[in-house]
Design a protein that fits this description.
The protein has four helices and six strands, in the order αββαβααβββ. By secondary structure, the protein is of the alpha/beta class. It has one domain: Vaccinia Virus protein VP39 (Rossmann fold, 3-Layer(aba) Sandwich). Strands 2-1-3-4-6-5 form a six-stranded mixed sheet. The radius of gyration is 15 Å and the shape is globular. The C terminus is likely disordered.
């Protein structure tokens, strides 16, 4: 079944655990209660994350600090409805500036903190991931069906390539 704590879903948990086994610095800007990240953030102060701020502010701060991550985890709300629900839980009003259009900004900032050769694990209802245009090579896709009327969860694992390398190139 689906869960708001995506990384607690058994096949996703196992993939993440295996992919992160050699990673020392792991950035998770939408961590909720996940313990996989070493630098974690979630807007909701009632979660286990170590920081509780807007994800763009969190990532901008990491860029300013010069953080270089071995891996990034990207498990944002998958729809505007989920964003609104999340904001209502913490008493924050949803505005047009909070919609899914911000996901590109999140990815651009995550790209700046991820080392060349690092791993990006992205979750959602599509397989977009970080993308070839940001110089990422797709290594794996996990499709997790939840049955009945629930959307599948799609997990992509990508590696950040050196500038100038094409799709499928090695770091």
């Amino acid at each position: 079944m689906p869960s708001a704590d995506t990384f607690s879903i058994p096949p996703i948990r196992e993939l993440v655990k295996w992919r992160l086994k050699d990673c020392a610095v792991i950035v998770d800007p939408f961590a909720r209660n996940s313990r996989f990240g070493t630098l974690t953030n979630d807007l909701n102060p009632e979660t286990a994350a170590t920081h509780h701020m807007d994800a763009i502010e969190f990532l901008t701060g990491l860029v300013a600090e010069g953080v270089q991550a071995d891996a990034v985890l990207f498990d944002p709300p998958y729809s505007n409805g989920q964003i609104i629900e999340m904001y209502q839980k913490i008493g924050r009003a949803f505005t047009g500036d909070d919609d899914l259009n911000r996901l590109g900004k999140h990815k651009d900032l995550m790209d700046r903190v991820l080392k060349t050769g690092g791993i990006a694990i992205c979750c959602g209802w599509n397989s977009m991931g970080m993308g070839v245009e940001r110089r990422y090579s797709l290594e794996e896709i996990l499709l997790v069906p939840h049955g009945r009327v629930h959307n599948d969860t799609i997990v992509t694992v990508e590696r950040k390539m050196q500038a100038g390398f094409g799709f499928g190139a090695q770091p």
